[in-house]
Design brief:
Length: 203
């Protein structure tokens, strides 16, 4: 994903007047994929952040890293860590089982995180083999780790709420509505999604 998002922004403003208004209000796109750490680290973080507020998830994530001297654990290290210690860091039993399943599959070679050469759909297919990793989690990985340009996270509640507000929908916006409304955003759906998320922070 290029850091200069001018081409994507021009396309989005041309094809969608509603999104154009949001773009003008939010200002420059500041989306830059996270290059630090490993793909494993990024997926661990995504699992921890599932269904939690950013603040609560960040606290738990830092506590988990604290078990390893303030750094992200290797798959073998996480797998070898006593469950009780991870639970004390704030992980639910469910998320603990997800992280252990991810670690065991990576260590065993059942899941290969060398995915840069794969198409988005192939990456989703590879990573949903992990317990607790669904399409939404992989889409966040595609956007914020790999910087894929055309990801439309139709399952994301923030996107659904933003579309409902921006497009003045009275009823609940469903994933199929997002896909229909967002069809014209391709091949720059990722930037559209970023602006929709930011629109929730502005009036």
């Amino acid at each position: 994903m290029p850091r200069n998002h001018a081409k994507a922004i021009n396309h989005l403003k041309k094809v969608d007047p509603v999104l154009a208004t949001i773009i003008d209000r939010v200002g420059p796109c500041r989306l830059v994929p996270k290059a630090a750490g490993t793909h494993f680290d990024a997926i661990v973080r995504s699992i921890i952040f599932q269904q939690l507020s950013g603040k609560a998830a960040s606290t738990i994530h830092e506590r988990v890293r604290g078990l390893y001297g303030g750094r992200d654990p290797e798959p073998k290290e996480l797998l070898a860590t006593d469950d009780a210690r991870l639970r004390e860091a704030g992980l639910s039993r469910q998320k603990l089982s997800y992280l252990k399943d991810l670690s065991s599959k990576v260590v065993a070679g059942d899941v290969n995180l060398d995915v840069e050469h794969l198409e988005d759909t192939e990456i989703i297919e590879q990573l949903v083999k992990v317990k607790g990793v669904g399409k939404w989690t992989v889409q966040m990985f595609l956007i914020f780790r790999l910087g894929r340009p055309d990801v439309l996270p139709e399952l994301d509640l923030g996107i659904q709420n933003a579309v409902r507000r921006a497009y003045r929908r009275r009823s609940k916006v469903r994933p199929k509505d997002i896909l229909r409304i967002g069809a014209k955003w391709s091949p720059h759906s990722t930037i559209a999604a970023w602006y929709l998320w930011r629109s929730l922070e502005t009036t």
